[in-house]
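anyone seen this seq b4? input:
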Amino acid sequence: MKALKSVLALSLAMAVSSTAFSAEKNVATDAAKNTIQTMKQDTLKQGKNFATEKVSKVKDKVLDTKSAVENKAKSAKKVVEDKATSMKESVTNTKDKMADSKNTIESKAKSAKKVVEDKATSMKESATKAKDKMADSKKTAETKAKNSAKSAAENAKTKASEKAKSLKDKAKSYVGEKININKADAKTLQNLSGIGEAKANAIVEYRNKVGKIKSVEELSNISGIGEATIEKIAPYLSF
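predicted toks r here
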């Protein structure tokens, strides 16, 4: 009986212990769950706060960057607009200068063209006058040349006639009187037909160099005296 009681008591104690342990286990589990839930909530809250702060900082930084970019963009836009305005004014000024230069060049070109045309007209008129003058001069020169040639021909004809008459008269005067070719001087020898000053001097030089001329044929040895001249003077020579 005692043993049975002991077993029953032990069983009861174990049952109580098991129930108590189970209850404690449930309490511990609930406490752990609550703790974990609390920690989770705290962690989430802290993470949310951190994320909110981080996002806020990033947002502020983005806003600052955006503001800086906008300011730089405005400044750059202002610079570009000012540069464009300056370039536009420069282009306008250049265009005006080019227009003025074009007008000046066209004016100078017209003036130069007018000068060239006037010069060409003047030169043309001068050329025409010179041509007319040359034509008149040519005509005058031709007239003078014709008159001069005519006068010279007439003078030559007159002189030839006079000389022929003189030679004829001389020939007549020497028909009965011959010239001694070895004694006559150069002036006397010139009275012979066809013998001028040069031939007369040549005869005298030959005579002085060679000596007495012995025949008519010997005259052919003298420079400038040919057969035709010898035939003319032979009848009027003596040796």
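The first helix runs from residue 2 to 173. The helical segments are 2-173, 186-189, 197-210, 227-233. kinda curious what u guys think
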